[in-house]
Structure formats: C-alpha cells, structure tokens
Amino acid sequence: MTSTDVQSLLRFLTGPAKLPLRDAMGKAKPLLADGLSSPDAIAKAPLDKLQKIFTEEKTAKQVHSAAKRAIKTSSSKKRSASTQDDASSSNNATEKTPISPLKRRRTNQTPSIDTSDPQSWESGLDLPTPVRDEGLISITILTTNRAPLLLAFTIVSLTYTHPWLPASSRFSLAQGLLDLTASAKAKSIGITRPEDAKPDTVEEGYKKLRVLSKELPILRRWDISGASTTSFQTETSLQKQGQSQKADKPPSDDVKPTGMNPGTSASAAGDLSSSSISPEAIASTSSTSHLYPNEPIYWSLSPSLLSQPPAASKLNPSALPIHLPHTAHSYLIRSFSQDKLPLLLGALHLLYESWVNILDPANLDRKSWNWYCTVRPAVEDGPEGWGGKGAVKLKDILSLRRNAG
C-alpha cells in the first residue's frame, strides 16, 4: 500500500462515492487490505464483500454504484457497452435483496424529531453508565482510531465545562470538532486537494465557541427554553447584525463571539462539582437547561451545509445546517464494545473530577486537548496513517489526574 493508493482511494470515496471524510478514512484501509484499491476493483467485487466492510447495506450499494459509474465514464465505448449490461444485471439483483429483520429493527429505532417537542432531540442519545473500578480500568487497553476517542473526550469535557448543555448540544459540538480536525488533517497530508475541499470555515459574523481549544461556529437554540424553534434565516440574520434580542425571543447577547463566559462558566462548573447531582447523572440527563436557566444552548454549525443547505429529513425536519447529534452518538457507540465504552467513560470522568475544582472552565477546556493528544493512539505519518488504529491504555488517562502527580 503506497501513499498514492491511499490518496486515490480517499478521493474516490469522498468524491464520486459521496462518503463523509470521517467515514472514508475509516474504510480506506479495509478496502486496500481486500485488494479494492480502485473504482474498477470495487465495481467488480461482489456486493456482499463490500457489505462486510460497510456495515450498512445502503452505504455498500452507494459505493458499489459510484464505482460502476466511475468506470463507465472513463471506459472506452466498446467496454462501456458490456459494462453497462453487467452493471444493470448486478443492480437488478441487489434491488431484489430483501432487507433483513435486523436492518428493519435498526431503521424502526431511528428517532424522529418533532420540532414542536424539544425533548425529541434527546431521544436515542443515552450513553452507558461509566464504570469507575480503577483496578479494572488500569488493565484495560483499547484498540481504536483517533476520531472516536476525540468524541469521547469532547462529550465528557463539555459535561464539566458546559454542564447546562443537553446531550443533543454536546454531541452536535463534538461532531463539529471532529469534522473540523479531520478536514484540517486531510489538507495537511495532501488527501484533500484545494479544488475538492468542502468549505470548512464560515463567513464573518457567526458566533463561535471554544471547544478543546478549537473555535466552532455555533447557532443559538431557542427550543430548549420553551420557545418555538427559531428559523435559521432569522437567527443568523440577527447574529450578523449584532442584535441582542428579538421581539418574541429571549436576549442572545449572553453568547460571546469567541470562547466561553469564564465568570458564568466557572460558577456553573463549581455548582456541578459541589452539587448532589453527579456528573454522570447530568451527562445522561436528556435536558439540563432547567438547572442553569440563564445559560445559552447551542448547535454546532456545519460550514459545508451553510454553502449547500441540506434537505429536510427525519432527523432534521427543519433542514438546519448543523452537525446532527445522532451522527456522533452512533459513531461513538459503534466504535467501542459494550464492555469497553463504560470503562473509557469512567476513566475520563475520574480525570475531570480531579481537576474541576482546581481549574476554571477555560483552562479545563484547554487542558482537554493536551490530554487527548497525550493518550491518543500512535499512527503512521502521512496518508498511510489516515484512519489507522492503535492501542490506548486507560491507565494513561488515570495518570493524568491531579492526585496522580
């Protein structure tokens, strides 16, 4: 496997196959390992072989079809005629493939967002109860790539720096951070060419929030406070004009253009640490805005969706250009086994609990990025390491605690 192979395959996956960058980076190595290094090889591979790599049947078909379209475009007219016959036959066969009962159950479990009910955003975002057994944590080693570990760090960090955020906001911000860092990494190692890159910044005027030392563009949420869902056009217009409030909405000038509100956040973090409510309870609560009624709630804005608005869907009926929380939640749950994720969450909560009374939220957030970089798995430099997995010793997270010296 060469650097050229990885770059070429990733360009196909993020281009004609239309996979998100995060998904493409996780599937490039398995495809190369199976000898599927080009659209031609992917198109000729049986669909069931692709389904072993792309666990969702819909995604496997999407990549399969994209590969067929790619070779049709580049093939000569003579080869194109025969290829079309083969492709048509294969597509007819796959269209008749019945959906398994397991697939149906997963589809039926997908939450449906009701814009008149803010709590519907919280459905399906539960995480397992953290396991706090230090002995068990200390002997546990995870094999993972960097992205899901960053998600876990972000979700737990926000529990302590912004404890009033509901799960939907924390997962949205975590997904925004993941996409921001993945885009920057892809550019730095030459996977994404300038002409192929999707927008990863927003125009001036949007408010931003600092999460793990990175500034994310945000959209103020009004649904949590009981008001009806604000239209994106109205809300962003207000942000750009710098107005502090609307006639029928609460004021928005408590969101600063950059970073957090140190005074308010420090108080909130202190309340969290001294409260009888445990951090895990707050982390698993579907909505915590009632505990901190004066704190703003956010979505993470997606720069690429700002330039190319999404279509309305079951998970986004208002077609907001935001990072959807259920995307991040699903990725985190799928990335770790049922017995390992509670241990990872437990280790992270023990880490943050040791510092929350010592550091203000801004410094706790800043340290979070350094902690993540300290324990993240080592991978090869350059495109070869894109999406690579490595070992993460949970005892290394415990060693970062304040009382660990």
The tally of helices reads 18
The 3D shape can be described as globular
Strand arrangement across the biggest beta sheet: 2-3-4
Give the tally of β-strands.
Answer: 5
Category by helix and strand content: mainly alpha
**Count of the domains:** 2
State Rg. Answer: 22 Å
Average pLDDT number: 75
- Following the backbone from N to C, one meets helices and strands in this order, namely HHHHHHHHEHHEEHHHEHHHHEH
Describe this structure in words.
Strand 2 (208-211) and strand 3 (214-221) form a beta hairpin. By secondary structure, the protein is mainly alpha-helical. The strands form two sheets. A three-stranded antiparallel β-sheet has the order 2-3-4, sandwiched between helices. It has a two-stranded antiparallel ribbon with strand order 1-5. Helix 1 (3-14) packs across helix 2 (21-33), helix 9 (146-161) packs across helix 15 (325-335) and helix 10 packs across helix 15. The protein has two domains: 3-104, no CATH class; 122-200 and 260-404, no CATH class. The two termini are 43 Å apart. The chain has helices at 3-14, 21-33, 39-44, 47-53, 57-74, 77-95, 101-109, 134-138, 146-161, 167-188, 232-241, 262-274, 279-284, 303-307, 325-335, 341-355, 361-375, 394-398, and strands spanning 141-144, 208-211, 214-221, 297-300, 390-393.
What structural keywords apply?
mainly alpha; 2 domains; three-stranded antiparallel β-sheet; 405 residues; two-stranded antiparallel ribbon
Describe the SSE topology.
Blueprint: H1 3-14, H2 21-33, H3 39-44, H4 47-53, H5 57-74, H6 77-95, H7 101-109, H8 134-138, E1 141-144, H9 146-161, H10 167-188, E2 208-211, E3 214-221, H11 232-241, H12 262-274, H13 279-284, E4 297-300, H14 303-307, H15 325-335, H16 341-355, H17 361-375, E5 390-393, H18 394-398
Antiparallel strand pairs: 1-5, 2-3, 3-4
Helix pairs in contact: 1-2, 4-5, 5-6, 9-10, 9-15, 9-16, 9-17, 10-15
